[in-house]
Amino acid sequence: MAAFLIRRLLQLILVMFVISAVVFLIFFHTPGIDPTRQIAGRNPSAAAVKEIRHQFGLDRPLPVQYVLMMKKIFITRDLVSYSNQGQKIVPEIAQAAPATLSLVIGGAVIWVVMSIAMGMLAAVYKGTLIDPLLMILALIGISMPVFWVGEVANLVTQSRWHDTFLFHWVPPLGYTPFTQSPLTWFEGLVIPWITLSILYTGFYARVLRANLIEIQSEDYIRTARAKGLSERRVLLRHTLRTSMITFISLFGLDFGALVAGSALVTEVVFGIHGVGYLAWQSFGNLDLPTIMATVVYGSFFIVAANAIVDVAYAWLDPRIRPA
Amino acid sequence: MAEVAALEHVEPASPGGPEVAGRSPWALAGRRLLRNRFAIGGLILLLVIIAISFAAPLYADHVAHTNPFENNLNGHTIVNGKRVALMQQGGGILHLGETPLGPTWDVHHYFLGADQNGRDVASRVLYGGRSSLEVGIGSALICCIIATVLALLAGFNGGLIDVVLSRLMDVIWAFPVILLAICVATVLLNAPDGVGVGPVRITATSLWLPTLIIAFIYLPYVYRPVRGQVLSVSEKEFVEAAIAQGASGSRLLFSEVLPNVITVVIVLFPLMIATTILTEATLSFLSIGVQPPNASWGTVISDGQQLLYTRPWVAIAPGILIVLTVLALNLLGDGVRDALDPRARLRIEG
């Protein structure tokens, strides 16, 4: 296990280096595009251009430029936005992080529970009407753009049915920190959580159902039945337990890569001022330092989250450790 | 749905069964696909959506008689025989400001109403569908072709080419997809006179920009399964037999390896289009995809966000078309996978 941990850590560092280097190259060395003008925004003054060239060390050799930029993002954390009166970006990201984490973690809890329930029901009731109905629902779920689901949800819960008993509890759009009012925090996040989780519920339910059905034809399931175990016990202790291995590995593989875009648009639609919302605000005026910093921090968080899932997976399933 | 469930567990074409003897694997797969009612339903739905989207100029010019790309704030139209202003005073939540005309449900006169610039939403949704489908299908096609060529090069030659290409793909793979697209899109959109290599120039408003960006970010998602298949096919006995017969490298590649690899690409293709259409919609919604004057389903939804509570159809209509298109592609994709049955799996991006 120690060897696995060390190897996974080295891999994590390598991936982070690659991501930061590629982001750096995209922003500063895309052929034919002048990075100073990009960072300074539209129609910069000559003085501003000179200032930026000095600040980012763009006259220095390439590796030095890279190190300088990483220093600005991670060590001195004094990268400033050029469209927002020189506001420091990194403290802003730190301030926005709790909102994003609340959204993503809550959404993940919902889609794990819902997809296990849906996948299991569909597999158990295979051959009845329940299975195809659930699978059509899952298919529609993976076919809907997350931001559109969010808008329809807003239309229903904030406007059309807001005054009925169904949705009168939904607070206005926005994010309330947990420390300020746990109840409003929760109420404000319920609809965004459901919106974010619909896509993944459908996706994981489909995979889990296929996996459960595959496992049901294994010899050890027949043996378990032959021993006289109840169907419930066979399902929970033998079938579902084995499928969890696939489920968790899929979670590690997809979680980060998939969730970034959905979390971003969910924040935008529901006015949750998280890291994605911060990035989105800077798309409009193409504020590149902010976009760069949010992308680097966002990717690092995702890569780290994936590594944690991998370690948990290795801990659960000893077979993958020596791989 | 019962058919889908049943077909998911169809045995691979049993060789030498009395009924199927003498048919090529392609004919068998085609028959299986045709028998899958959901896949065919998806295909028909998809073709209908493509047809009406590409008829957008016909609709705008000959049915609705509007130009959906020009502001028309002072325009009028006819509703129930009466002349009505496109922008109505005081229709907002607080009865302040201007609200565009709502849906008239009359195909000749602002069927879905107007947007905040007085443009015909129905025509914009159709034109938007054309852009979305062009970007979605185009990027999936480019992505599949380039990834397949690279995977064949890498898997078939091995050695240094394989190492270099596979590491490059690992770099793209390491990124959360949408963040990579955001990086590339913001940098390229910021270039004042477009980007280009040599004589080819792409301006920031061109549809080629989102098409190429989306094709690029999904390269490893096609490259990896195809390269894996190339490696496994290259070790099969029939390839050894061809080598023993003295087949040339190109003959091995095109007659032995490629036909056995192409099924993986065919299975991935519809699912890839579903993914690229959703990605385009997301980027356009965030204002870093399709740029004005072009419209796409994503940009129309983004326009509709400000009108959500007063004129919800601006945002709802394009969304319904996205859902139907992607659903059709997923049904078709599942059907094609079941018909060809290679063990391909694609990560789906929302």
Polypeptide structure, described:
The complex is a heterodimer of chains A (323) and B (350). Chain A has 323 residues and is mainly α. Chain A has 2 domains: 2-89, no CATH class; 95-280 and 303-320, MetI-like fold, CATH 1.10.3720.10. Chain A is 76% helix and 0% strand. Chain A has helices spanning 2-29, 35-40, 46-55, 62-75, 89-124, 130-143, 146-160, 182-216, 219-226, 231-270, 275-284, 288-316. In chain A, helix 10 (231-270) runs parallel beside helix 11. The termini of chain A are close together. The model of chain A has no long low-confidence stretch (mean pLDDT 84). Chain B is mainly α and 350 residues long. Chain B has a domain at 39-58 and 128-349: MetI-like fold, CATH 1.10.3720. Chain B has helices at residues 2-7, 25-35, 37-54, 56-63, 121-157, 159-174, 177-189, 208-217, 219-234, 237-244, 249-285, 297-305, 313-340; strands at residues 76-79, 82-85, 87-89, 98-100, 195-197, 200-202. Chain B has a two-stranded antiparallel sheet. Chain B has a two-stranded antiparallel ribbon with strand order 3-4. The longest helix of chain B has 37 residues, at 121-157. Chain B is elongated and about 80 Å long. Mean pLDDT of chain B is 81; it is low at 1-10 and 342-350.
Helix content of chain B: 55-70%
Order of helices and strands of chain A: HHHHHHHHHHHH
Q: What's the total helix number of chain A?
A: 12
How helix-rich are the residues of chain A, as a percent range? over 70%
Beta-strand portion of chain B reads 5-15%
CATH topology annotation of the largest domain in chain A: MetI-like fold
Question: How would you describe this structure in keywords?
Answer:
heterodimer, A: mainly alpha, MetI-like fold, 2 domains, 12 helices, 76% helix, B: mainly alpha, two-stranded antiparallel ribbon, disordered N terminus
Task: Produce a short descriptive summary.
By secondary structure, chain A is mainly α. Helices cover 76% and strands 0% of the residues of chain A. The mean pLDDT of chain A is 84.
